[in-house]
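Hi W.,

Here's what went into the run:
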Amino acid sequence: MANLNQLTVHALQDLLRSGQVSPGEILTDCLSRIEQVENKVKAFITLTPELAKLQAEQAQAFLAAPSAGPQSPLAGIPMALKDNMCTKGVLTSCASKILHNFIPPYDGTMAEKLQQNHAIMVGKLNMDEFAMGSSTENSGFYPTANPWDLNRVPGGSSGGSAAAVAAEEVIFALGSDTGGSIRLPAAFCGVVGLKPTYGRVSRYGLVSYASSLDQIGPLTRDVTDCALVLNAIAGHDPRDATSAPVAVPDYTTFLKPDLKGMKVGIPREYLGAGLDPAVATVIQKAFRQLEELGAICEETSLPHTEYALPAYYLIATAEASSNLARYDGVRYGHRSDTADDIITMFNQTRAEGFGQEVKRRIMLGTYALSSGYYDAYYLKALKVRTLIKQDFDRAFEQYDLLVSPTAPNVAFKFGEKEDPLAMYLTDVCTIPVNLAGLPGISIPCGFAQGMPVGLQMIGRPFAEGTLLQAAYAYEQSTDWHRQKPELGVR
Amino acid sequence: MATEYEAVIGLEVHTELKTKSKIFCSCPTTFGGESNTHVCPVCLGLPGVLPVLNRNVVACAIKAGLALNCDIAEFSKFDRKNYYYPDLPKNFQITQYDLPICYGGYLEIRVKGEKKRIGITRIHMEEDAGKLVHQGETISRSEHTSVDYNRTGVPLLEIVSAPDLRTSEEARLYLEKLKAILEYLDISDFKMEEGSLRCDANISIRPKGSIELGTRTEIKNMNSFRALQRALEYEIQRHIKTLADGKKIIQETRTWDEGKGVTLSLRSKEEAHDYRYFPEPDLPPLVIDRAWVAELRQQQPELPDARQARFIRDYGIPDYDAQILTNSRALADYYEAVCQLYPNPKIISNWVMGELLRCLNAEGLEIIEAKVSPQHLADMLKLMDQGTISGKIAKTVFEEMFRTGQDPARIVKEKNLVQITDEAAIAEIVNQVIQTNPKVVEDYKNGTEKAFGFLVGQVMKQTRGKASPALVNRLLKERIESMA
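Here's what came out:
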């Protein structure tokens, strides 16, 4: 039998229910895998093995109790959270020096829900600082490596989450996605990553980067696991006024290997200049596969796509400039110890605590909101955002689903994209989805230059079920998701 | 001839709402408490937290808007006002910028007997900041500064008047009226000393008759009604003198120094903050349900103006009395409670406005803190009517009731204050007083009215004030006349 850390949630669920394995045994396999590969992958910022062992015992007791049933498929499953989700008593750093010592006194909704489901947290995962980046190179501590090629980035910002799942250190992970930060690393690392509809999952306890775009979602080995995790984390939260009071269906009921009659649009703007030809070939093949499964695929257009990136870098940075203002050294986190007045203390704390990219975005956002520039930048960006939403609205009058590559290229090498603009272009296919607040999923659909390629599917608001159905049908007809990385160098 | 100027004044009033919990979390809003005990991750602005709007705050804002004749927005939203200060845990304040919840209202004040309408430009909701406790005078001159976040997130209404006020007195009258209305609505305590009310003023002057506006200054830190009037008076004179000296008014923010009685420059227009307002992305826009507004309108209590009119009509008391009595809801409630128990509203009004307010002011107490109940006051007035106590003794009884909260009958009995109505006993004292004061009696006979008062006083002194004044007067006059 394979090591337990290599299995999926649903496979482990069967083994746990039949009593063939215990949560402790699964945890042991995960922890030894972490010991074995973590020095190469560096997916984690914090490991919590002692806490995990305690939780495994509790999960064991829970599973043994007669009340335990199919309601808790995550019980006893080792997982990890991106380090921007608050966990009571466990460092939550956002991979930033400015929060290098921040131990939250409270649990965010994700930590709470996973505890209620008796999932086992083995640690907190690396990321781009404050979720700003596409490669995890912007971590204030160290970069995470791509398990498929340790010389390459895992994508970002949830790079630790994707790498930990791909490297089989945990069974699943949660990430957050503001402009592609779940889907891009999922694509680069060959795993499944879902960004739910804005408001589908509570943001309470998620350290904000850009409030109107941030959304938490699962990174898993396959689509079935994605549905199981989404079942556990979705739903209205009275502590998050932007979470939607929309009923949560059982997402596993959508997992049918059938796409007959599903109308699928392929936006031509997502296949434009900048798309790596090798990736294009893989993607075209995936489109044909969808057709074979019964989908009706057509080319379509989202005409305002080219304005999504600039609009995003105004809206997200404007919100970030305000969201990140609280890191001033007064109450928690890093405080400069060489300042002797309050203004200098603010300035030095932030100069010392924030990395380059975070500073760049704070400055961009501050500028965009400044008196005299607001209308030209921020307000205009909001108008563009509306146009982008309308593009999608029109497309969804005709199609059930839109598909595209998740990224125009495969994972790149460390240091390859030093120019911030080149880095920003990596998110060109994912950013419009956040601006429109829609659900998007990335699933493995092949390899180019030996690196995984992701297929992105975009759905109507709260149509995660449709996404999961299409993703499942595609997945079941291929075996890309069964490929394992070697944790070597290409 | 010197130019005659008039002032143009607008007030921005911040008042804390007395909701049970804070505007965006469930922490209590209670004043005081040990530092940093009424706090939670949300009002401390910890990483990851989100605000959730307290519906009662919106209800209070709508109630205020309706009472101040405002339109209630159908669509409103919150915005962030960004600035760095250690009492502000997120380094931005959640407030309302361009779409306030209420706009376009007014209230009426009475200036020299004339009604005057003062426009209300807007009312919006926002969160309060914490409190800094400096070791020295200011944050920059202190060895260290502590911060208390108990007040952080307490809901505030900002009520902005139109520049319709022309004198410092009008400004004070406006603020008093606003206080009364909010008190009637039971949404704010308006306690300046606890910082639950803060008032800023925009002020400029112009030659009387001119319609152009002069350069304005903004005055902050006026922490009482008296301070408001003094500060505005000072600032008006400062503007006049500046212009008279041939200088220009500088547009700036100034602070009132209560101790020195002057306004001082705080910052110039050029140094003004750029607050980089933008819509609060963590809170969905507010769509105000019309049915809810109608419901709140229906629940609106009687307001000061209506109550004043009713007092004049139903109790037949003078305008002046009705205005004083209705200035405070609690005082008016007290007055009406006594009216239920005693049939002469004017006598009640005299006692409430006279003795009761005098005693309260002397002790610095609010009406709700008064120990003397409406029942006690009514009983005391009845004792007077029955002749058990005199008007003079009644004042003593009242003071005792005010001090101890005991009922008047018991005070009269225990202190032996029952009026002496025994004619023989008083006559004896009257004779004695006449005999020992022959010169005074002579003066009275020669037309010195004051002398009679002295003789009455002597009788009262000997009876420790308990003699029936009417009886004393009659007996004294009879005896002196019979002497002639």
